[in-house]
Task: structure prediction
Amino acid sequence: MTLGCARNEVDSEELAGRLAGSGWELVDAEGDGPAPDVIVVNTCGFVEQAKKDSIDTLLAASDVAQDSGAKVVAVGCLAQRYGAELAQSLPEADAVLGFDAYPDLAQHLSDVLGGHAPAPHDPVDRRTLLPISPLQRPAAAADVAVPGHAWMPNLPRKRLADGPVAPLKLASGCDRRCAFCAIPSFRGAFVSRPPDDVVAEAAWLGMHGVRELVLVSENSTSYGKDLPAGTRALTRLLPRLTHVPGIDRIRLSYLQPAEMRPDLLAVIATTPGVAPYFDLSFQHASADVLRRMRRFGSRVDFLDLCERIRAHAPEAGIRSNVIVGFPGETEEDLAELEAFLVGARLDAVGVFGYSDEDGTEAASYPDKLPADVVTARVSRICALVEELMAQRAEDRVGTEVEVLVEAAEDEDLDCTGRAAHQAPEVDGECVFERGSGLAVGDLVRAVVIGAEGTDLVVSARELLPRSELFTPRSADGAGLDTAGRGAG
Result:
């Protein structure tokens, strides 16, 4: 069971790969097959609601385990962040394991089954440690020579879903010190993955039916700052990924506005095969609030960034999240945010009400707003963004989009997918006219004929061919650059 963001999804698939490689069999805990011996819950510890959802899921897993005698093990961000405290307050979990337990998870699960669960860890601020990623891949990420093939990636990952979209981790950790965010304290310092590792995993995903890669990290615009190529590494990596066999669309997520260099903006907006999609973490638009958040920018700066994006790609998708009710936020600050949202014409906006997070600077700030004021402001901004997002969707009527089909039509469900400006789960989707006859994984050129909120109603025009798939090549290495390995 996996909760939280796409980065956690990658962690779960890597853990599944490690376990499968150690002889463990993955089963559906609530299915008709064999009962599980251990139920592993990959938790989220980002905000209060995410913590609650993780606790509820662990309790639900405990209920399932009672029938089969299975053990329940908590991993992930909540387990890492609270460790022994979580174990003490949640006896329903037979073990609570942090990130450092991941490489030896198979042995730890065997110990749990044998009644010798490892002691829960006492969390430390991972910013004080050397920059170690929770899931570094030392030897396991190397390429393995296969007779009749130029190369194939050997990766500790097992897909837990069979759809045409998959997240791919660029980096782990974060070096920023936003006043409201606790993530760096439990995810640690920022560590980029080597470009060849990223390309190798992309190739593996392409061989397993994936057509769209969603590149994820805590802060993708920092990618490469700890590599020899520096931050230019990302502008070189994105074009390489577009040549990976089987992959037709690359989507970049988690971008910091203050780090959006002109060269990176241009590569995202204009490179064929890279979605012109900008997931920008604005958080607010008042310069005063942003400074208290330990962030940069202003309404003018952010509107200028949106204009520069659309100068390159008029139909580019731009989404963001904003925090309302931050300590000291005034009516003038809120009006500044509203003016930005009206002017920016964002495709999607997530609205969050501020709440204190353990260990963050903002938790000690004075001038906290009453809960009812925060709630009222969230409702006010939500109403505005719902109207603005619907207007933005209406603006796309009559335009042409390329839609990746993710759900096929049956007697009860419509055929749906996403255009380049729509990311999985967080944005709207495209709904095809009934009778389209399309299948999951099809990439279709379509025309937008209507809008329903943030969703688009589309009419299929042309089925687009899939990119060249990985095929056997001679063992002498011919064709390596076609797969994107070693180039750039």
